[in-house]
Amino acid sequence: MSVTVAVLSLKGGVGKSSVTVGLAGAAWESNRSVLVVDCDPQANSTLCLDVPPHTFTLSDVLADGRPGIAAEAIVPSGWGPRVHAIPAEEALAHRDTSTIPSSAARLRLSLTGVADRYDLVLLDCPPSLGELTRNALAAADLALIVTEPGFFALRGAEQALRAIDVASTSINLGLRPAGIVINRVRAHLNEHAFRIAELTRAYPNLVLDPVIPERTAVQQAQGAGVPVQAWPSPGAREVTEAFDDLLEALLAGRAATTPTISTAREQR
Ligand SMILES: Nc1ncnc2c1ncn2[C@@H]1O[C@H](COP(=O)(O)OP(=O)(O)O)[C@@H](O)[C@H]1O
Ligand SMILES: [Mg+2]
User: Fold this and answer.
1) Which of 91, 140, 149, 191 could disulfide-link 6, Cβ–Cβ 3.0 to 4.6 Å?
2) Rounded to 5 degrees, what are φ and ψ at 19?
3) What pTM, to 2 d.p., does this model score?
4) Are 165 and 129 in contact (CB under 8 A)?
5) Strand spans (E) along the chain
């Protein structure tokens, strides 16, 4: 069965694209088919997936809007035969505003008959609650919130949950929150432990286990256009384990309640 997951936070730089490609890598490693739809004009996940030159992008898909048209924009990734992408480009920014109420449904319509061909479809959102994120929320089965363990985490999660709530009572009645994934965790920092405890207290049923550690390997693999799962370092293996568990939890529809922070010495 296919699952479509929107990866969102209203804040930039917290790791939406990293979690998107991390989950895509976990799917790649477990021989599942995955389609990454890059809904962010910054096109970071497009870059990480090492896609070949392309001309038809998500921007063209949304401009066209016909049912199933997304198939025309699918490109293979450099990761292997089961990992595909619908790339983003800067021009996608023009699609982030709309005055037409029905325009939030364009992505969902365009994916008609397309999403079902994959085990997993990941929608990497831009850091705003504009039309692109609304399109992603309208097209998804699950909404995964990404946050860092920082001062703004609680407020950010609250805003994202409200957006999911609004979407699930208007443009997509089938939408459910998948949970809150805490990214870039440094186990030895008291501040991080404090923020994780704070988030868990506020959302005991939504904070996901495991958290994703901060490791240089994430950036190294992204820079090389390969899955972190293929990066040869101890840090990459820690991140790989976390994404494997997160993917299994997502696909099983589990939202664990107690995040564990690895006490292993940080390896960089
Ligand atoms: N777990 C992590 N460990 C190390 N670096 C990370 C991690 N998650 C994200 N980053 C880095 O942080 C930066 C922002 O992450 P990104 O995924 O692009 O955020 P967003 O998509 O939310 O804007 C990138 O340079 C990325 O490589
Ligand atoms: Mg991003």
Assistant:
1) 140
2) -70, -40
3) 0.94
4) no
5) 3-8, 34-38, 75-77, 80-86, 120-124, 142-147, 176-182
Among the listed residues 268, 259, 218, 242, the one whose alpha carbon sits nearest the alpha carbon of residue 17: 218
**Cβ burial, residue 201 (10 Å; 0-12/13-18/19+):** exposed
**Residue 11 beta carbon below 6 angstroms from any ligand 1 atom:** no
Does ligand 1 lie within 6 Å of residue 15's CB atom?
A: yes
Cα(12) to ligand 1 centroid in Å equals: 9
For ligand 1, pick from 8, 18, 181, 211 the residue to mutate: most ligand atoms within 8 Å of CB: 18
- For residue 7, what are the β-bridge partners? 124, 144
Superfamily covering domain 3-251 = P-loop containing nucleotide triphosphate hydrolases (3.40.50.300)
Q: Say if ligand 1 is within 6 A of residue 214 CB.
A: yes
pLDDT score recorded for residue 256 = 38
Across the range 80-91, mean pLDDT stands at: 96
Q: Which atom of ligand 1 is nearest to the CA of 19?
A: 17
Q: Please check whether residue 250 is in contact with residue 5, taking contact to mean a CB–CB distance below 8 angstroms.
A: yes
CA dist., res. 38 & res. 204, Å (int) = 30
**24: phi then psi, degrees, rounded to nearest 5:** -60, -40
User: What's the order of all strands across the beta sheet hosting 176-182?
Assistant: 75-77, 80-86, 34-38, 120-124, 3-8, 142-147, 176-182
Sort strands 176-182 and 142-147 into parallel, antiparallel or unpaired.
parallel
Domain ranges for the chain? 3-251
Q: What distance in angstroms lies between residue 137's CA and the mean position of ligand 1's atoms?
A: 22
